[in-house]
Request: fold
Amino acid sequence: MTTTPWDRWYSTSCCLCCHVRTGTIILGVWYMLINAVVLLILLTALSDPEQYHLTSAELANDLDVMDDANMCIASAISLLMILICGMATYGAYKLRAAWIIPFFCYQIFDFALNTLVAVSIVVYPNTIQDYLQQLPDNFPYKDEIAALSTVCLVLIVLLFIGCILGFKAYLIACVWNCYRYVCGRGAAEILLYVTANDTTVLLPPYDDSVSVPPKQGPPPITATA
Reply:
């Protein structure tokens, strides 16, 4: 019996030796808390824009960093993320595989975006220097970082992004294994229910039973002299 690559990487345990179902629940709750804090900060900033609004003078830029429209969009995204993470947590807890799919798709999308960032840094290494020049003057260690060579900066950034991508890939594998576990658990419960409750005898259709010719009986026994 041959095993597919998906079966080789399948495991029911994740970090800290906990079950993938427990890990998915913890991950979903953690993402919910982060997005809830972000949503709270954004709503507070919308309610008091004079205190939390960052102007162009503070960041040495000609444009405002975030106006009210962008903050409303960010608030809507945070609210959507809370909903998606809540669905994943509920799906892992109640063994509903379909509820985990949106969170898994979000993980794939986030991983693809970070991969594109790494590729753009390799293709356009000067973007790091441009980004450093846009930072405010009071940013910690700005001059020391800007004094490094472009190759050194690219290697440091790629190493940092590579660690992030590796960690995100591991979390994606945990959620995918949880999805497979929930699907397998549901299929096993359905099979057990059908096996335990199926007491009927399956008969062939009437037309098929009529069309089958009757079996001939054995030949008569004749007495021999």
Remarks:
- The radius of gyration is 31 Å.
- The CA atoms of residues 22 and 177 lie 12 Å apart.
- The chain is about 70% helix and 0% strand.
- Residues 54-64, 189-194, 199-203 have pLDDT under 50 and may be disordered.
